[in-house]
Amino acid sequence: MLSAVMEDYIKAVYAIENDTGERVGTAELADALDVTAPTVSSMLKKLTERGLIDREEYRGVTLTEEGEVVALEILRHHRLLESFLSERLDYDWADVHEEADRLEHHVSAELTDRIAEVLDNPGVDPHGDPIPDANLELPEASGRSRLIDVAEGERAVVKRIRNQSDEALRYLAAAGVEPGVEIETVEIAPFGLVTVRTPGGEQSLPEEIARSIETAPTAEAET
Length: 223
Prior knowledge:
- GO terms for molecular function: DNA binding; DNA-binding transcription factor activity; protein dimerization activity; transition metal ion binding.
- It is a single chain.
- The chain has helices at 4-20, 26-33, 37-49, 65-88, 96-103, 109-118, 166-175, 207-211, and strands at 53-56, 60-63, 145-146, 155-161, 182-188, 193-198, 201-206, 213-217.
- The protein is built from 8 helices and 8 strands; from the N terminus they run αααββαααββαβββαβ.
- Among the domains are: 4-63, Orthogonal Bundle (Arc Repressor Mutant, subunit A); 145-217, Ferrous iron transport protein A (FeoA) (SH3 type barrels).
- A hairpin with a 3-residue loop joins strand 1 and strand 2 (60-63).
- The protein is of the alpha+beta class.
- A 6-stranded antiparallel β-sheet has the order 3-8-4-5-6-7.
């Protein structure tokens, strides 16, 4: 049985690798998990011995097939918990991530399946992240653009928020930028701010946050 800390490392490797398309370095993991590089190296050695990651000196790590299965199981727990907290317990969408982080290590596959059934097997969580199904397959999402790439004057629908730090989520919630909201890019400033028009008015977003927001064209957005 894996410890909660081991599962956190596997989830972090999956998230970074999925975002960058490249092997994951020690420094990236240390930054993501807020730990020291020696701590990361020690844990990566343990995960390598368990056959969950493939590690090459100076090239970083990647999940093995077995490690990816573990990552998808954790994501299924986490994202269904977020959906349950939001839909059935009236948690704000910006607050469910931290709570699900605490719970994801302590729920069984059976409980997760029951949550999915009660919620009618949702395809995405409150942040727009895809939820692996019972076979650990992810729904496809095509035609997406990062908000930073939406041209000035164009309208789009927010589909996914990738940056899920508590600070970023609450910032976006206060700005009225959340999945399902239609926005228009007003200005992309050379110094890093992206100004968008939301139903509540204009909001200026830091470039880092704008890069974490996935959108779909309004004419092609899913209903």
